[in-house]
């Protein structure tokens, strides 16, 4: 009888990574636009204090957007600090670009794409293209 809960827990654990992987593969411009729009309009008190399911969803969306952009900006900055020609930054934003400013730019540009089918493209690819256009680097990347 004790093995049933253990098997159930094991099955849930094995299923979780597949579900998370599915979310990452399906992360498109539409989802990014939705979550970053919530982040742009978020009232921090509402996100933290609101115990309703709606407040929880808003907090998840806002947190996803800010975490996604922080990771992207930080990894891009790290690439700009290396002397390795194969690891150059994809875009060159102002130093200490506020995440909220980056999010507002992203939502504005994704809204333009929503009129086309491109909003369904992979969110990371769209974000990199948008930031590379908005914050181009001064020097062209060396040919490889």
Provide a quick synopsis of the model.
By secondary structure, the protein is mainly α. It is built from six helices and no strands.
Structural overview:
This protein has 144 residues and is an all-alpha fold. It has one domain (26-134). Helix content is 67%, strand content 0%. Helix 2 crosses helix 5, helix 2 crosses helix 6 and helix 4 (53-80) packs across helix 5. The longest helix is centred in the middle third of the chain and has 28 residues, at 53-80. The chain is globular. The model is unreliable at 3-21 (pLDDT under 50).
Fill in the keyword field for this structure.
144 residues, 6 helices, mainly alpha, 0% strand
The span between the termini is: 61 Å
Largest sheet: none
Question: Level of helix content?
Answer: 55-70%
Q: What is the β-strand count?
A: 0
What general outline do the C-alpha atoms trace? globular
Provide the domain count: 1
Give the helix tally. 6
The radius of gyration is: 19 Å
Low-pLDDT segments: 3-21
Structural class: mainly alpha
Strand percent estimate: under 5%
Q: Strand-and-helix sequence, N→C? A: HHHHHH
Mean pLDDT across all amino acids:
76
Explain the layout of strands and helices:
Elements: H1 3-25, H2 29-41, H3 44-49, H4 53-80, H5 99-113, H6 123-134
Helix pairs in contact: 2-4, 2-5, 2-6, 4-5, 5-6
């Amino acid at each position: 009888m004790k093995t049933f809960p253990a098997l159930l827990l094991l099955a849930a654990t094995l299923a979780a990574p597949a579900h998370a992987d599915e979310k990452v593969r399906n992360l498109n411009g539409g989802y990014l636009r939705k979550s970053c729009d919530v982040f742009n309009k978020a009232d921090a008190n509402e996100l933290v204090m609101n115990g309703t399911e709606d407040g929880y969803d808003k907090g998840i969306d806002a947190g996803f957007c800010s975490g996604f952009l922080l990771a992207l900006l930080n990894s891009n900055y790290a690439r700009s600090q290396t002397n390795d020609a194969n690891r150059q930054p994809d875009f060159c934003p102002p130093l200490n670009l506020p995440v909220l400013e980056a999010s507002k730019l992203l939502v504005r540009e994704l809204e333009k794409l929503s009129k086309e089918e491109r909003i369904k493209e992979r969110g990371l690819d769209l974000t990199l293209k948008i930031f590379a256009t908005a914050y181009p680097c001064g020097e062209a990347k060396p040919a490889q």
